[in-house]
């Protein structure tokens, strides 16, 4: 009996409520629009504050810093391994070169998508059909050039700026030339951001060297001509060394040229290598 009364009362109340709601909407259609808009607004504001990654929240910023620190220390470890397994293991032993290779953050010299592969035993693409050289080759060329803290170095083929940075850790000044203008501009900005104040990057043809800053104690060339550019030999200081790949488009020999104090040139082949071809003047003078 009690249950039947409660049931009938509840049914009556529901009918009344739905009738008055329908009447309300019937009398005022704009009210329906307002209600719907209000609901959409509330839901979107709540979602934005919950999911907007740009909204600064102290714990998120702190977490991000921790992740960055962790990633940086992982890169330090990857560099340590790269030096011991790819470089020392192959016979590079100059301590200043090994220290520089452990220090320069190679992952900052490759496009973001390639950072995970930055410490692999291979060259990597840097865009414009160019590459950052294999870590071992960078270390070998640097060691062969015998740089010291008083040296002035010329780096032909800036590319990413990595070789210039490795040299800059050891020598007094580095002058670096790149023939692809966007690469030169990006490398210049990158090296500045990383705090290298002893590197100057110029867009131009490295075949001609950099007369204004010659003579150089060290010249490292990272693009292969089919002959040795005479301006580079001329701009070598007495006692200076030129490290250059010379050969055809597929295969070259890495040559070491030393200018003796009397001006004579001593030349020897080091290892077979595969660099990108030198463009510009080098192609015209074939
Ligand atoms: C193997 S990549 C250089 C790698 C670079 N050393 C690095 O650490 O990223 C060779 C570079 O030489 C540049 N290059 C080719 N011919 C050149 C020339 N005549 N003068 C200057 N740069 C040249 C290419 O554009 C390319 O960026």
Task: Report on this structure.
The structure is a single chain. The protein is α/β, with parallel strands linked by helices and about 290 residues long. The chain has one domain: Vaccinia Virus protein VP39 (Rossmann fold), CATH 3.40.50. It has nine helices and nine strands. It has helices at about 1-25, 30-50, 60-85, 95-105, 135-145, 160-170, 180-195, 230-235, 280-285; strands at about 125, 130, 150-155, 175-180, 200-205, 215-220, 235-245, 250-260, 265-275. Strands 5-4-3-6-7-8-9 form a seven-stranded mixed β-sheet. The protein has a two-stranded antiparallel sheet with strand order 1-2. Strand 4 (about 175-180), helix 7 and strand 5 form a beta-alpha-beta unit. Helix 3 runs antiparallel to helix 4. Mean pLDDT is about 85; it is low at about 1-5, about 15 and about 45-60. S-adenosylmethionine binds near residues 177, 206, 207 and 279.
Radius of gyration: 33 Å
Helices and strands: which structural class?
A: alpha/beta
Biggest β-sheet description? 7 strands, mixed
Head-to-tail CA distance between termini = 111 Å
H and E string: HHHHEEHEHEHEEHEEEH
Q: Per CATH, which architecture?
A: 3-Layer(aba) Sandwich
- pLDDT averaged residue by residue: 86
Query: Which fold name is given in CATH as the topology?
Result: Rossmann fold
Number of strands: 9
CATH class, named: Alpha Beta
- The low-confidence parts are 1-7, 13-17, 43-58
Biggest sheet, spatial arrangement of strands: 5-4-3-6-7-8-9
Q: Which kinds of small molecule does this entry bind, naming each only once?
A: S-adenosylmethionine
